[in-house]
Amino acid sequence: MNKKILGIGNAIVDVLAKVDDVFLKKNNLIKGSMKLINEAEFEDLKKNINIEKIVAGGSVANTMAGIAHLQGNPSFIGKINSDNFGDIYRKSLQDINVNFSYMQKKEDLSTGASIILITPDSERTMCTYLGISSHLSENDVNEKNIIEHKLIFLEGYLWDKGISEKMFKHVINIAKKNKIKIAMSLSDIFCVTRHKQDFYNLLINDLDILIGNENEIKELTNKKNLLDSIKQLKEFNKLIVITRSENGSIAIINNEIINCDSIKIDKLIDLTGAGDLFAAGFLKEYLDQSNIKKCLTTGSILASKIIQKIGARLE
Fold first, then answer.
1. Which of 287, 238, 292 is nearest to 260 (CA)?
2. With 70 as the cut, is the pLDDT of residue 116 above it?
3. Cα–Cα dist 219/69, whole Å
């Protein structure tokens, strides 16, 4: 049987647009960051861009899409409204064989959306209106959704609201009770800064696998250089995966460090989804019980493919 993975994350419709650096300055946006905005700000910004593409996004959903691309068997839970963006969202995942395990209903808030602004240097800056996605609660995730999976993958972004935090703990309790492995991505450095102690406690007490980039890991461990972070993380009996862009990736497992080189690419187009697709390659191989080096390599291959095209989908 194909071992199954369930991703739980913010269900966000990605709205992709190309802009220049002047546009970012004019709108007081920090290049490369993810900024939470309200619905009015979202509508304003939308008026001032030329939309290239609309697709189901959200970090964990991108990872599940990558696993589907590798013929894995992924499911996803994220909260949407029964509105236009919600319908686009559901169809976008179903079209690529991601099992969408959430019951769509009429909600007060609209489906979440993220305007992804891509500058000429391929860096992406996100302005995200979470909408109903941030109200994913424990009532939206039942035990039946969880127990048929081997691994649950959660995103750090989910920790941003009290109601989601309760849901997170609810999922972890069910997973532990049923001996299901728990993996989490650190999402972004600002997210780590906001929830450093919580994430550290999660790592020690609950997680089997943690995935983050070099800056997120240094922030989590309060260290200036990566070697110090690694030394600290080796003390935990966890699988910790660190991505380092062109410097490749590292896994720490059972006091051992495994290195993997990055894949050379022809042309960098758009960094959107690089970390999400790395996680897809890594976790798919991990579920297939490949060795850790192969997990890292497949993650790197997927990341190298996605950064040579616009958006976070490989098909």
1. 292
2. yes
3. 32
pLDDT mean over 42-69:
93
> Percent of the chain at pLDDT above 90?
79
CA dist 125 → 23, 108, 305 (Å): 11, 28, 20
Pick the CATH number of 59-108+132-306 from 3.90.1010.10, 3.30.479.20, 1.10.260.40, 3.40.1190.20: 3.40.1190.20
Q: How is the chain split into domains, by residue range?
A: 59-108+132-306
**Which residue type does 83 have?**
D
- Helix ranges (DSSP H) in the chain: 21-26, 39-47, 59-69, 84-94, 143-147, 162-177, 189-194, 196-205, 214-221, 226-233, 274-287, 292-306
Pairwise CA distance, residues 186 & 252, whole Å: 16
The backbone region for 66, taken as left when phi is positive above 0, alpha when psi lies in -120 to 50, beta otherwise, is alpha
Predicted confidence (pLDDT) at residue 162 exceeds the cutoff of 80: no
Contact 263, 300 (CB under 8 A): yes
- pTM for the full model? 0.91
pLDDT in tens, 190-200: 899 999 999 99
**pLDDT: is 132 or 269 the higher one?**
132
Classified as helix, coil or strand, 287 is: helix
Q: How confident is the model at residue 1 (pLDDT cuts 50, 70, 90)?
A: very low
Length of the chain: 315
Instruction: Please say if the pLDDT value at position 164 is more than 90.
Output: no
Amino acid at 30: I
Q: Do the beta carbons of residue 15 and residue 58 sit within 8 Å? A: no
